[in-house]
Amino acid sequence: MGSITLQDVRKAFGPHVVIPGANLQIEDGSFVVFVGASGCGKTTLLRMIAGLEDVTSGRIMIDGANVVDVPPARRGLSMVFQSYALYPHMSVRGNIAFGLKMAGLPRPEIDRKVDAAAAILNLTSYLDRKPRELSGGQRQRVAIGRAIVREPKAFLFDEPLSNLDAALRVQMRQEVTRLQRQLKTTAIYVTHDQVEAMTMADRIVVLNAGSIEQYGTPLELYERPANLFVAGFIGSPRMNMIERETEQHRGAATIGVRPEHMTVSRDGDGWSGTVRAAEHLGSDTFLYVDTPEIGSITVRCVGELGLGEGDSVRLRPDPTRIHRFDKSGTAIR
Amino acid sequence: MARRVAVAHTVTATVAAWIVGFVIFFPILWMAITSFKTELEAFNTPPSFLLFQWTTENYATVQERSNYLHHAPNSIIIAGGSTLVAMVIAIPAAWSMAFVPSRRTRDILLWILSTKMMPAVGVLVPIYLIFRDLALLDSRIGLLCILCLSNLPIVVWMLFTYFKEIPKDILEASRMDGATIGRELVYVLTPMAVPGIASTILLNVILAWNEAFWTLNLSTSEAAPLTVFIASYSSPEGLFWAKLSAASTLAIAPILVLGWFTQRQLVRGLTFGAVK
User: Fold this and answer.
1) Which residue numbers delimit the ABC transmembrane type-1 domain (chain B) (predicted)?
2) DSSP of A45-114, one letter per residue?
3) Could you tell me if residue B118 is inside a domain?
4) What is the domain partition of chain A in residue ranges?
5) Bridge-based pairing state of the strands A254-257 and A323-325
6) Residues of chain A found within 8 Å of residue B191, distances taken between Cβ atoms
7) If I label A247, which of A61, A311, B111, B228 is the partner at 20 to 30 A Cα–Cα?
8) Domain tally for chain B?
């Protein structure tokens, strides 16, 4: 079991408020990703759940018990750090076994569990090596092995893949997701990479300046962003925000149209504009269009269109996928 | 071409390093050579470098006049003991300042160091009177205490900078793994800090071994370490260069040997934190 609830969790360093008050309900077995720009408080929130950071006020419940005053060692959670944080003087076996040793398990049981974890993570042939003799990806797997071997109530991941190169990151992303589905253990994963968030999460928490902007499934966030921040944060390229008055506004202060929800033609109706730059990716084409009516707009088209710099185009938004926001930035539903 | 330039650089650097090393080492070499001269030869101008009548009579005289084997154990006890006590105090102090810093940690560290900025002679009289009243004059325990206190700031600072380099993540990982503070220290921190602790011990032993101000002023015979043994050859009766050199050579020999065998640790300790 590993349900985690945050109730009015607040964090301040002196007069500087980092988390003004977070409320969150994480269900047992789910994979929740905290995403936000750097400095938004996502790591602080994770460290408070871990117990590595004190809570200024509020309650953190793990399986219904308030753990605010429980030291990290006794919260039954395990954590994978961005820097891996392996014990440099211990072998891979020693690293993975350390938590079990601290728990006072008998030696044969420790060996059995370490071997099982190593087998899952393809580390069996590296068990006697020191961390410095491993590659980045292998070190990351040792860190994960150390986390899973203790069978914790929940895994906490603090940007664990950000030190890996792009190809390895995609591979590890899938491995972590597969492992979590297999073990059915609650996981909280912190990242600034929205692709990781969208691909791995059951539910995403979008954080901005220490506040939870929205909590929902990846597609909910994409299709029904709660406010301007989430609308701009989720989706790549960014959603176009149009503040000038047009016929599509219908009483909204701002409307948002995703680059992929617009059709482009050389003539017809819609906003007129000139292509300032075109990026041809083969599968997609990104057009950056200057329009006199609504400013600069990004459009994503599938395939190759044969449009280039200086071409005149017409842009038509998909009327069913226009997002409307009021003056305060909240979505109008 | 580039390769030839690189080789030339290496050669120049090596030659320069040897020259600097020789210049620094020269006084010790000169002292060792002088210790094998007769008193007359030692005063000769111009001095002879290697071509003179070599003699070991100075060593015999020195040993006869003042017993080396009485002073050497004092030096060992005082240097070793003060280092041990300093470590017992400094390890927990540096630990807490490196890993659980408070808002005042920076100030405390500076305050600790500030005691080193005061000239020792400024407190000689009060310290002397305290020692007299506590019957610590010319006692090993007294010298051990004063050397421990005077080197403590450096020890705390060295250990602090060393501990600072240990990634906090690793300690936190052990906490997440269920280690209590005590086990975290024993199983994770200490094994990682061993090189730093070792180089701090070495440096402190050398500092304490060579300390002359307090040992000369607070001891006469019973507890007198090797510094007093050397100083006795610069006396009102006149300077005995050759015998003074022989005494000095004897006094620094043990620490020189220790330094030679541990030079890698020492250099690491002295330059730690300077280069990432």
Assistant:
1) 72-262
2) HHHHHHTSS--SEEEEEETTEE-TTS-GGGS-EEEE-TT----TTS-HHHHHHHHHHHTT--HHHHHHHH
3) yes
4) 4-231, 239-325
5) antiparallel
6) 89
7) A311
8) 1
Assess if residue B13 is contained within a domain. Answer: no
Percent of chain B clearing pLDDT 70 (strictly above): 94
- pTM for the whole structure: 0.77
Task: Tell me the one-letter amino acid at B268.
Answer: R
Question: How far apart are alpha carbons A128 and A123 in whole angstroms?
Answer: 10
Residues 232-271 of A with CB under 8 A from B: none
Cis amide bond preceding A106, omega within 30:
no
- The answer to whether the CB of A296 falls within 8 A of the CB of A277 is no
Element at B4 (helix H, strand E): helix B2-34
- Hey, which bits of B181-267 come out as E strands? 234-235, 238-239
Closest-CA distance, B201 to chain A, in angstroms, reads: 21
- Domain range for B159 is 67-271
Complex confidence, ipTM: 0.84
Separation of alpha carbons B182 and A102, rounded Å: 11
CA A152 to chain centre: 21
- Is the CB of residue A329 less than 8 Å from the CB of residue A254? yes
CATH of A239-325, one of 3.40.50.720, 3.30.70.260, 2.40.50.140, 2.40.10.240: 2.40.50.140
Mean pLDDT of chain A: 91
Q: How many residues belong to chain B?
A: 276
Question: Which residue of chain B has the CA closest to A156?
Answer: B176
Q: What mean pLDDT do residues A44-54 have? A: 94
A37-to-A33, A80, A193 alpha-carbon distances in Å: 13, 20, 9
- Among residues B158, B184, B178, B177, the alpha carbon closest in space to that of B100 is found at B184
Region for A35 from its dihedrals, namely left if φ exceeds 0, alpha if ψ lies in -120 to 50, beta otherwise:
beta
CATH of domain A4-231: 3.40.50.300
Q: Is residue B11 part of a domain?
A: no
- Nearest CB to B169 within list A51, A71, A83: A83
Cβ atoms of A299 and A262 closer than 8 Å: yes
CATH assignment of the domain containing B119: 1.10.3720.10
Residue A155 contacts residue A78 (beta carbons within 8 Å): yes
Tens-place pLDDT, residues A268-289: 888 899 999 999 888 899 999 9
Residue B186 at interface with chain A, using a CB cutoff of 8 Å: no
3-state class (DSSP) for residue B61: helix
